[in-house]
Amino acid sequence: MATYDFLFDGLGLRAWCGEKGSSDGPMTMAELLARKKTGGAEDGFTADSIWNLPFPSLDELNRACAQFARTRDMTKSVENSFLGIKDGLKAVLDPLTQPLSWLLEGALYLFAATPWWLMIFFLATLAYVASKSVRLMAFVAGALLFLAFIDHYDYAMQTLSIIFVCAFLCVLLGVPIGIAMSRSDRMQRLMIPVLDMLQTLPTFVYLIPLIFLFSVTEPKLYGIAIILYAIVPVVRLTDLGIRLVDEEVIEAADAFGMTKRQKLFGVQIPLALPNIMAGVNQTIMMSLAMVVIASLVSAPGLGVLVLRGIRNLELGVGLVAGLGIVLLAVILDRVTKAALARVNASTSVGRH
Amino acid sequence: MPKEISISIRNLYKVFGAAPQDAMKHVLAGMSKAELMAGHGHVLGLCDINVDMHAGEITVIMGLSGSGKSTLIRHVNRLIEPTAGEIWVDGENVLEFGEDRLRQMRRMQMSMVFQHFALLPHRTVLQNTGMAQAVRGEGRAGYEKAAHEWLERVGLKGQGHQYPHQLSGGMKQRVGIARALTSNAPIMLMDEAFSALDPLIRTDMQDLLLELQQELRKTIVFISHDLDEALKLADHLVILKDGIVIQQGEPQEILLHPNDPYIVDFISDINRARVLRARSIMTPAVKAGHVSVSGEVDAEDTLETIISRSNGDTAHSYTVMGDGKPIGVLDMKTLVRALVPSSAANDGMRKRAT
Q1: Which residues of A touch B (CB under 8 A)?
Q2: What's the pTM value of the predicted model, to 2 decimals?
Q3: Whole-complex ipTM
Q4: What is the DSSP letter of A26?
């Protein structure tokens, strides 16, 4: 006899429920434990106290009426429905995301094939071009040389190449989305919940459906996970930046007869650039965070070493790889912040 | 001589709110601004505006904040769409323009100067000055010469390479004016163009504008909340209160014959000697008869100038000259009487309040 028998008996639904306890699924762990605790009784129901009243959950109702599915059946059906649409989804997404795999493979190959001295020279020069600071350039070169010296160069380059590709794609996709959001309130209302979800979902949750959709051997698996996670700030800040452009300047652009296009490229984007750059900085930092987690799904790089440190309890390996990640984070942050500061200086709006 | 009308605003209404057309019906049925706000949650921004602006003149629209003056000027180039009414510019109804024709008008026929300058912070002063031409699709070579010339005229020679944030407020507004002039459009809209500037710089800028206007004869629509500024600049003065035109006309005329307690209050604080001119208070020559005359003054001279000429002696009287001919006589006693605010001031709102 189950707790909620009275409910179905009272409502005259006994016939609809059929034979109670007829669920043919395997017993759940909770049931097994419950049975053990009450010494083998069929159920733990004692009418003596309302304190023991169980919550009318799916499992509990199932015990009274077989028409109710158990929770495990529900999760099973969620899984089945995902697997049901999986093939269709894969047929669409696979060719669509194939270029991402190529880009990632290409970047990984390029970074690995370039001789170390050329690569470090190139990256230091890039740092200088972005920041116009010799000190920062020296710091970048020094950090990379240090990583090479402790034999972490290859791992660091793998991590860096993945970040370059993913952050680039984030900007390529995120800025137009942000512009669309800034132009239409409806689009903004539509996108904000999506962005909120992407930002709050635990990172591992992205990975689960992606593993089912794509093969773990494909780079696009982690590429998509990184892009979904890291694209949010650049979208948000592009939208915000364009909406924050001084209204009088926009009026002036209209009053002098600018077309929408002239206004976008001549006024809105240049004036929103400091905010967009702040978004790019955040996007790069979030890509770095995700690329470490993505080593769970075969993303190469420093994250693999961290994972090895956890799995094999190799404390030293994990800590040193962690230090390498911190160094990369500092490099990326400083260089993008310096670039941001330069943009800020050149477009600073005078106070009224 | 009938002057050509450049901009003509006819029965213009603007209602702000969720359903302006519905609220408009109540307005036409005679509902007041306050009732519309309380009963329907709509704001009556402009109510039945009729103004003619003549070509080559400065029309000043004056009112306190919230009177709808900035809203009104934005209707001329349709930065704001009216709820009802007509706006004619050089014989064409602006409200019938499609997007392309409207853009064409904004590019070729009008320019605008803004209260907070609205320069592009990422462009140099020169690029800002040539903005109108650049928008029309001309390259730097196309606008550079004209832009340099106008920058020199407004007193910013050699500053073309600077960025706006390197300039002071007054200099920024000079760039704003140079930008409007470089566009070479016949109509200039100036929205509180000098309100954000210090008083001394403001006076400089007003003089600059008048000096340029002497020669350029643009059709200027100037918004101001400052009566002294309005009286100094205006050929035609429109006074706006709560979205309604309460008086418009020649500024001297308004000063001598205010038709509303609100205006009386407004004008009671100004320095009449500096604003009133000889021609407004003189006795026309035909009626004058023969009076002993102590000298000649120009019709456009302010009373202040004449008082200083007379050294404060009220026994003098002067012949008023217009275009080289005597057109009237000005007695110093008349002048002194004109300095006292009109008797209407006794009925003014402030008087009643005390």
Answers
A1: 246, 248-249, 251-252, 254-259, 262, 266-267, 270-271, 346-350, 352
A2: 0.80
A3: 0.82
A4: P
